[in-house]
Structures are given as structure tokens and as C-alpha cells.
């Protein structure tokens, strides 16, 4: 059994670059910066030209981390040649994670040439579209919803690729941030709700697209702007020469209200990224400050309260939490109480090893001197099943703290997500099991107190970005799109 942390699993990360002679190596570095968005597999497709001038697509992909898949640098000179590329990091929200065929980007050759696509998100109507396409004679090579997009484009009767892509995307429902490569274009597209982030950058006169701006920083690219919800951005040789990006709307008269995934601010995106019009770091600190203002912790003997994060995703939130405690006159100190191993890779629990004993110890260890005899506040971003949180609490108890308090910078997760997060089924969610009773969850975890932010408090933290622009479906059950109530992750395994 493979050990995985009890966290929401992130969708995927996409990258693209056009007009750069080092497109593959820049894509590699971009994917490296986006590693947090998917650790199962990685792939890169480049566009090159044969001696006769005919475009050719090269592909290299495999299972594992970016550094593992592209461990042999020769691949960048022998296989991934060309001056345009797209890349993808995968965490399987849809499609079997066991099949190498499901590793993106996907590539096809059809009547208008080559086309490759990398997709971040989930299509809620993929099953229906797939059935329609199969009935019309389409043959699928993978079980991923992303292949539906390629079939819709390839089967279009229109004679312009941008029009074909626009027609295909207009049929999709759900979440998608796309990086698409054709024989002569790099195309970025984002669903009309803007569930997932996608940005445009510039590197020495060439254009770059990525899920997060941290992928621009690693290659010293300059952030230009975000792809707007419902927008198709086209980059070709003409754009590179004129420096004027071509933009199209997926749907005319777009009446969709933005519904950004609030979990991007809470957990998924890196704190050094800029998404949804704001810095993630700023939003995460504000979540921590509101958490402290609403749910402070005091030491019963008037001693210093020790605040620790669950590294790395909660580090910034813990900074905000402790700063606010001090502002409120509560004697406190931010400490490193948990040490995280960054080198676990694909670690497996051997048969016979007790999961409860090995569990979080693979990933975390405690700094006993920091925690012993202290009132400890653990700041974390979410609780999904609760199993890992319980193991973490038990681990911290070994340091013999005075008290353990847990503060969560999101609301109780009561409902599954259909837009790119791999939440377990409703029945596996501890908040759902406990019918939203925080005291029962507190008792199960064995902490002195447990507090979550309410949905309104979460939205207050992101108020600068307009609270109405966020999807909170996994907390509230109010989905922005129509979803079959019997839907579950298995239905995505098309």
C-alpha cells in the first residue's frame, strides 16, 4: 500500500511555450515549479520541423516526479527538439492512474495536422459526450476525460483550428484550463467559470502559459496577465512578431459568473504565485489572521502559546495566525515543531507494517524540545478523512505538550468536488460522517479544541478578490453547474 497524506489531491499543472529555441528545457523547469500540482506522472510534447519543412510532434512522458521522468538530459537534445512545447504534471482526478496511456499531454494527427492538449480540471459532462462520440464511431485510446476534447476538435466540420477548438469547448461543462499545441500555434483556454488558474507570461520576446506564475519565476519570464474565464488565447508567429496576443471568447454573451476554486488560496497554489488577481501569500496570511481573531488560543497558566504549522502548505497561514495573536495581546511564538521530509518520493508501506505506526512518520517528525510542556496550536488548511490528522496529533502527543489545539483555515469538507479536486466519496469525509459536528471530530482527533473557519469567514479573508467570485461547493454543496447527485469519482473513470 502506498502512503498518501490525508489532503485534497490537486488536479494537475499545465505549461506551454512558443517561439523559444529551448522550449523543452524551459518546459521542464516550469513543470518542476508546478510539481505540487501533481506528482504521479509528467510529460512534454514539442513541435519541430523536418528537413522538408513539415511539422512533427515529439513526445516524452512517464510516471513519477518531473526530475525522475526527465532524469536523462539527453532527451532534451535527442527527442524533445523544437521551438514550441507544452507540458503536464499529473495527479489523476480522472482516468486510471495505473495506465501510462493516461499520462498527458495527449497527441493526435488529424485532417488539419497535429494537435496536443494538456488539461487541468474535470469535465462534468465527459461521460455523456464520450458516449455520443463512441456512438458516432470514435475510438478512444485512454480513459481520461481530456481525450474527449481532442475528439470534439478532430471531428469538427469547420476548417479553421481556432474555430474548431472554440466549437469543441462550447460543448464542455465543468472545469478546464488548457494548454494546446498545434502545428503553428500555442493556445490557452479557460472555462467560463474560471475554476482553475491560468496565466500568460513573456520570456525574451517569446510567450509562455502556465497554471501558476511561480512557473514563470523559475525561468525568469515576466508575468503579463491571467487568461480570462471563458477566453481562448492564441499565440503564433504573427503574435510573437507584433507582440499582440489574439483573444477570442468561447461563448458569445458570456453570462457566467466567476467561480474560482477557493482551495487554490487555501491549499493548492504556491504562496509565491499570483492567481485570481491577487498574491496567494497575502490571502493565506489573511486566512490565518481571521482564524486567530475568531478562534484564539490561550495558555491556562498564562505562559507562551506555541504556534506550529503542518508544513509546507500551512506555513504562511500559521504566520498570519501567530501575528494576529500577538496583535490581540496573546503571548505567543511561531515555532518549527514539525519537520517534514521532502525526499519520500514513491514510498511504500511494506506488507506487515502497521499503517498506524508508520503513517505520518514517513513524512513528519516532531521537535520535542519545542513542544514539551507547552500549549500547542497546530494550524492546518483542511481535514479530509481525518486519519492523517489523528496520526499527526498522536505523534505530537509523544512530545508531552500541555495541551493541543487544532485550527483549520477552511470549513468542514462536507461534499465531493467535481471540478478537479480528488476528494473521496461523501461517505469517506469525516465532516460528513460526523454530520458537521465539530465537537465529534474534535473528540475523534483527541485534541483539546478544534475550530474551523466558517464559509463566511473564509470568504471574508478573500474579500479583496470579491467573495461572490468563489466556488465553495465542497463546503456548502452549492454547485455552480448541474451535477448528477449520484455522481462519484468512479464515474470519471470513463
Largest sheet: 7 strands, antiparallel
Number of helical runs? 18
Determine the fraction of residues in helical runs and give it as a percent range: 25-40%
Say how many strands there are: 24
Uncertain runs with pLDDT below 50, 5 residues or more?
none
Structural class: alpha+beta
Beta-strand content estimate: 15-25%
| CATH homology-level superfamily of the largest domain | Aminohydrolase, N-terminal nucleophile (Ntn) domain
How many domains? The number is: 2
Sequence-ordered SSE layout with sheet pairings:
Blueprint: E1 12-18, H1 23-33, E2 41-49, E3 55-63, H2 66-69, H3 75-78, E4 84-90, E5 106-110, E6 113-120, H4 126-135, H5 146-154, H6 161-169, E7 177-182, E8 186-190, E9 199-203, E10 206-210, H7 214-217, E11 222-226, E12 231-235, H8 237-242, E13 246-249, E14 260-261, H9 263-268, E15 274-275, E16 278-279, H10 280-294, E17 305-309, H11 315-327, E18 332-334, E19 338-340, H12 355-358, E20 364-366, H13 368-371, E21 375-380, H14 387-397, E22 403-408, H15 430-433, H16 438-445, E23 449-452, H17 455-461, E24 470-471, H18 473-476
Helix pairs in contact: 4-5, 5-6, 10-11, 10-17
Structural description of this entry:
This protein has 494 residues and is an alpha+beta fold. The protein has two domains: 12-256, Aminohydrolase, N-terminal nucleophile (Ntn) domain (Glutamine Phosphoribosylpyrophosphate, subunit 1, domain 1); 282-477, Rossmann fold (3-Layer(aba) Sandwich), CATH 3.40.50. The chain has 18 helices and 24 strands. A seven-stranded antiparallel beta sheet has the order 3-2-4-1-10-9-11. Helix 5 crosses helix 6. The longest helix has 15 residues, at 280-294. It is elongated, with a radius of gyration of 23 Å.
